């Protein structure tokens, strides 16, 4: 039987700590969320590889380091209310739910949203909600948000996100064209900081189904 706890601890040391992710709260969050529950049964043995893995609807679950890096840049506190655009499997949102007061994660694929919400219920994450909709419009019913994180690349921040961002809040997303040079960027009303080169799927408006 696979020892997922051991695989998780190895991943944390090998792929997070050695690459500069040292926030104890963030590392504990990775221990608390079983990544093997967020991948298909045939890929469970690879759940803790530091690489993207395929999930339903032709999408992927991001590699653990990228998930950690984006959350680290958001600097989430226990008082924060967070919006994630592009929930996918729900894994990154589940990590954030360990750190923030509350998290809303929006997903354009109905199949993925339903699967992610089922995982949320199984893990009893009462401060996390998965919703189905157009992420480029944010999620107005629960705004404002102290942080908005996006797991897809765009050329600019959608205007709706700025409208839904709380004073002093920040947006973390990859900026750049689909298939081209993209940069993980932290944006606030006072400016932006361009950081790591990355490769993400494009941000698409409108729900997929």
From TrEMBL:
It comes from the Bacteria. The active site is at 62. It is found in: Cytoplasm. Its main location: cytoplasm. Keywords: Cytoplasm, Methyltransferase, S-adenosyl-L-methionine, Transferase. Its EC number is 2.1.1.77. This is Protein-L-isoaspartate O-methyltransferase. One of its GO terms (biological process) is methylation. NCBIfam families: pimt, PRK00312.1. Catalyzes the methyl esterification of L-isoaspartyl residues in peptides and proteins that result from spontaneous decomposition of normal L-aspartyl and L-asparaginyl residues. It plays a role in the repair and/or degradation of damaged proteins. The keyword Transferase applies. One of its GO terms (molecular function) is protein-L-isoaspartate (D-aspartate) O-methyltransferase activity. Belongs to the methyltransferase superfamily. L-isoaspartyl/D-aspartyl protein methyltransferase family. It catalyses: [protein]-L-isoaspartate + S-adenosyl-L-methionine = [protein]-L-isoaspartate alpha-methyl ester + S-adenosyl-L-homocysteine. It is an enzyme of class 2 (transferase). The keyword S-adenosyl-L-methionine applies.
